[in-house]
Amino acid sequence: MSSPPNLLMMQTAPAGSAGGTASILMGIVPWLLIFVIFYLLMIRPQQRRVKDHQAAINAVKKGDQVITGGGIRGKVTKVSDDEVEVEIAQGVKINVIKSTLSTVLSPNTKPAND
């Protein structure tokens, strides 16, 4: 009498393991979906902003208006590989490392309130 229940258990075991694989797969799919959404909405746009910022810093030239990370606004008077010389007032020039520039404005840009 104990023989038929053992046979039933043996026959249903492989079907149960296939269901277990599908169950694991269905548990992973939501996590993958969350990662894809996170990548598309957060990581990719941030990488694009960093790339655009690096391009703007590398393209800085004499005469551009810049704003440093500390909030100092001035006009670029000299550019070297790693530094720029910024005139912040008449006759007052400071050397600033390029990577600390937060914004590069073109010389033709007018303030919004004019």
UniProtKB/TrEMBL annotation:
Classify the source by domain of life: Bacteria
Q: What is its main location?
A: membrane
Parts of the chain that traverse the membrane: 20-41
Keyword check for Lyase: no
Physiological role: The SecYEG-SecDF-YajC-YidC holo-translocon (HTL) protein secretase/insertase is a supercomplex required for protein secretion, insertion of proteins into membranes, and assembly of membrane protein complexes. While the SecYEG complex is essential for assembly of a number of proteins and complexes, the SecDF-YajC-YidC subcomplex facilitates these functions.
Q: How does it assemble?
A: Part of the SecDF-YidC-YajC translocase complex. The SecDF-YidC-YajC translocase forms a supercomplex with SecYEG, called the holo-translocon (HTL).
Q: What is the name attached to this protein's record?
A: Sec translocon accessory complex subunit YajC
Q: Which organism is it from?
A: Sphingomonas limnosediminicola
